[in-house]
Amino acid sequence: RFENDRLHLDAVVLSRDGRERLFVADSAPESQAETLGRAAAEALLEQGAAQLIANSRENS
């Protein structure tokens, strides 16, 4: 969402059953949208998103 000249991003990765939830929220100036997205992805990966996604694919 965009408010007060800033882009606000909420990103989440959930396990298939919804029991595990990884979340990140941040904001940046609109001109830094790509950096904001990359930082959110990195934060989710640091929380274990890659493993959560891999587990989901194995159980599909």
Share of helix, binned: 40-55%
Kindly report how far apart the N and C termini lie.
Answer: 32 Å
Number of domains: 1
Shape: elongated
SS class? alpha+beta
| Strand neighbour order, sheet with most strands | 1-2-3
Index terms:
33% strand; alpha+beta; 2 helices; single chain; 3-stranded antiparallel sheet; 60 residues
How would you portray this structure in words?
By secondary structure, the chain is of the alpha+beta class. It has one domain. It is 42% helix and 33% strand. The protein contains two helices and three strands. Strands 1-2-3 form a three-stranded antiparallel β-sheet. A hairpin with a 2-residue loop joins strand 1 and strand 2. The longest helix is centred in the middle third of the chain and has 15 residues. The protein is elongated, with a radius of gyration of 13 Å. The N and C termini lie far apart (32 Å). The relative contact order is 0.22.
Detail the topology: elements first, then pairings:
Blueprint: E1 2-3, E2 6-14, E3 21-29, H1 33-47, H2 49-58
Antiparallel strand pairs: 1-2, 2-3
Short description:
The protein is of the alpha+beta class. It is built from two helices and three strands; from the N terminus they run βββαα. The protein has one domain.
